[in-house]
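Quick question, first post here. What does this chain look like in 3D?
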Amino acid sequence: MSTMKKKFKTVEEFDKYSEENDITEYIDESSIKFHRPTKRVNVDFTLEILKKIDNEASKIGIARTALIKMLIAQHFMKR
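> Answer (accepted):
Ran it through. Tokens below.
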């Protein structure tokens, strides 16, 4: 990856430049994040299960929803 030597004063100036020039050699593809569409869902858990989820999440220092997403993702990645 090359370093771009041209400095831009505004976003508009960069946008105009990138529309007229190939800037792909300056893009670090390892830092690109893709945003996948999501859909919100509601799930009901018993209090017993919810306590277990909360305990496990606190053990590893993440939020309840993050743990639920992680466990579901791990389950489906095994297939």
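The longest helix spans residues 47-60.
DSSP finds three helices and no strands in the chain.
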